[in-house]
Design a protein that fits this description.
single chain; alpha+beta; 6-stranded antiparallel sheet; 6 strands; about 30% helix; globular
């Protein structure tokens, strides 16, 4: 992946898994599910080996804002669309990791 992440494809479950990175006591990874022209992102965080986050990105809006509020999955039709989605998603992921680390 051109964004600096190592990626493996799980052919059984049909998703891409970002290689884990440890920063301090946290291990960060992400799963990417491409299905029917949509992108589903799952950000996973473990602290000292314990899972603390691991939901699809759209679920966090329901938990933090309102149970009825939904952020829809990004839709792509071309590789250029997908590239733009990944650039935005991974910049958000980097910001998210910095925020988690700053909470210590």
């Amino acid at each position: 992946m051109e964004l600096g992440y190592e990626v493996d494809f799980d052919s059984k479950e049909k998703f891409f898994k970002i290689k884990e990175r440890q920063i301090k006591n946290y291990i960060f990874t992400a799963n990417i599910i491409l299905e029917n022209g949509t992108v589903d992102l799952v950000w996973i965080v473990r602290e000292n080996g314990n899972l603390i986050l691991g939901l699809p990105l759209g679920e966090y809006s329901r938990l933090m804002i309102n149970p009825d509020y939904r952020i829809k999955k990004p839709i792509f039709a071309t590789y250029e669309d997908l590239d733009e989605i990944f650039q935005i998603a991974f910049q958000l992921f980097e910001d998210f990791k910095k925020t988690i680390i700053a909470l210590e």
